[in-house]
Amino acid sequence: MKSYEVNFDGLVGPTHNYGGLSYGNVASQSNSQQSSNPKEAALQGLAKMKALMEMGFQQGVLAPQERPDVAALRRLGFAGSDAQVIERAAKDAMPLLVASCSASSMWVANAATVSPSADTADGRVHFTAANLNCKYHRSIEHPTTSRVLGAMFADQKHFAHHAALPAVAQFGDEGAANHTRFCRDYGQAGVEFFVFGRSAFDTRYPAPQKYPARQTLEASQAVARLHGLSDDGVVYAQQNPSVIDQGVFHNDVIAVGNGEVLFYHEDAFLETDKMLAELQAKLGKRGGNFQSICVPRSQVTVEDAVRSYLFNSQLLSRADGSMLLIVPEECRGNERVWQYLQSLTSSGGLIRKVKVFDLKQSMQNGGGPACLRLRVALNQTELAAVNPGVIMTAPLYGTLTQWVDKHYRDRLSENDLADPQLLLECRTALDELTQILKLGAVYPFQIN
Fold it and tell me: Catalytic site residue 303?
């Protein structure tokens, strides 16, 4: 039976803004308070989805969240009508209003960790929504994320959903941004690669000194247990604390994997040789031939990687067995990175082609091509069981672009977030979107 890696890209929400909320994310902090263009952001993301679909890749879409999150503001003590809650938050605690308006759910690499049926004990595809408890504005996402994923992957015969881990520092979980799967074929048993920044209970593991390590070893181990993964199909690796302190807040900012290949920076991990040997041995036992491409610091520095998001790229398998790398325009704008990519693709190695996308609106908030997609490996039967409304087609692309043009603003500043009309605009848009994507009632305003 044929299997696929389906990329479900996050649709940018109507409140896309530059709040500078993510400490440790250099791009997010450096562009704080600038005016954003939600319409352009959403259209840029849709253009990438359409392009990949037209290249023959299976492509889906994942809906954004309701923002501002008035219920979250009520839990923090703001009372009255929805408009009064927003007004009082803007007057007394603007940072909380900004956080409640964040469109960060667009980066669905953080939505969940996904294990394919070939890896799990019960032969179902398992999803665990990420708690994202390191940052308040992201920690409020997982209840809606769980409902949206449940509406997309509803057939319990094929799909299993787990609640987010306990929302405490010891189980900080950032989802697929710190998870990669290696396999010979998407439908065959593979090796799931969990990368953590620190251990909550074991002091033998060093921790970064400047920026927080968002993923714990204990969270990764818990997800592996929930998904029914066997020990011989899992590898844990620690991210280099020094690169976290240089702005590498997730592993997908310094490494990306697909199929049998890991593309990574020389400084990405601790005990790299030991980790590579374990991946090679375990994948070898499952019929795979693990291969790695190390980008030397002498050619691309960590700073280059963070500024260009070279590794926050999509590594895609093509029909001829070679790989395609989807990178943001910022890679072409960095001379050292672009020179490296030219030499990489001309060498006749595994990665033969690079395709560049303009994702400036997302990039300025700290998310590149890889941040915008959640990978789900599915066999033909499982793909047929997915809600068909979320699978990208040419007609759906046309409908969604019209929807964006109708509902999104082309300029949004911090002051605009205090406008109660923005909440009404968002709810109207999302109510229509759930009908387009056939999701049913997944948002609080539709349920309550």
Answer: no
